[in-house]
Amino acid sequence: MTGAEFILPVVLGVSLAAAAGFRVFVPLLALGASAHWGFVPVSDGFAWVATTPALIMLAVAAVAEVIAYYIPGVDNLLDTLAAPAALIAGVMVSAAVMTGMPPMLKWTLAIIAGGGAASLTQGATTIARGHSTVLTGGTGNHILSTGEIIGAVVLSLLSLIAPWLALALALIAVFIAYRFIRRMRKNRPAEP
Exposed, middle or buried, 143 (CB in 10 Å: 0-12/13-18/19+)? Predict the structure, then answer.
């Protein structure tokens, strides 16, 4: 396995995992559709993601997830449930595209890099939604939800078309989220 054959699947996996932090099912659906039409190879254990029943299930789940985030109160509940789901989805999409690697290396990279990227993105969106709920009484959450779905779709598609660019955008998003979280913590009033 050459350097490019090794690095490209890792970059693709981490980029898709970062998208899973925005919406859990959108990157899985994008990966499944790409694998179904032969654009992206998946590991043997993940061939199910390209089957018609899986694509139907993932499409229904993605639409339901997107709609649910526009319901006040439900969006905050979903953030609680999405944290472990995003981690699992990030590991899954990463492992699915890391073909031709020894299992130990594949799963280590999928858990650390894929799970980490999904968790960072999900954590940042959860914190942003929490602040939005407090500052706007939840009325600003619709704008945040729209941004998250756009982020999930764009990052998923870009991951499949231009993985390096998608990784760069994911890293920029993580950096912005880090700065945002740091600023929010600095501006938080001291507790008595």
Answer: exposed
* Mean pLDDT rounded to a whole number for the chain: 88
Does the structure show a pLDDT above 70 at 20?
yes
Each as own residue / partner, the long-range contacts of residues 142-149 (CB below 8 Å, 24 or more positions apart, any chain) are 142/70, 145/66, 145/69, 145/70, 145/75, 148/22, 148/23, 148/69, 149/22, 149/23, 149/26, 149/66, 149/69
Which residue, among 94, 84, 74, has the nearest Cα to 27 in the 3D structure? 94
pLDDT tens for 63-90 read 999 999 998 888 888 888 888 999 999 9
CA-to-CA distance for 69 and 71, rounded, in angstroms? 6
Q: Which amino acid is at 4?
A: A
Rounded CA-CA distance 9/41 in Å is 10
Measured in degrees and rounded to the nearest 5, phi and psi for residue 42 equal -120, 155
Alpha helices in 98-136 (DSSP H): 103-109, 115-136
Residue pair 85/24 in contact by the 8 Å Cβ criterion: yes
Q: Which residues of 87-103 are buried (b: 16+ CB within 10 A; e: fewer)?
A: bebbbbbbbbbbbebee
pTM of the predicted model, to two decimals?
Answer: 0.85
49 pLDDT exceeds 90? yes
**Residues 83, 32: Cα–Cα separation, whole Å:** 22
Place of tokens 């982020």: 151
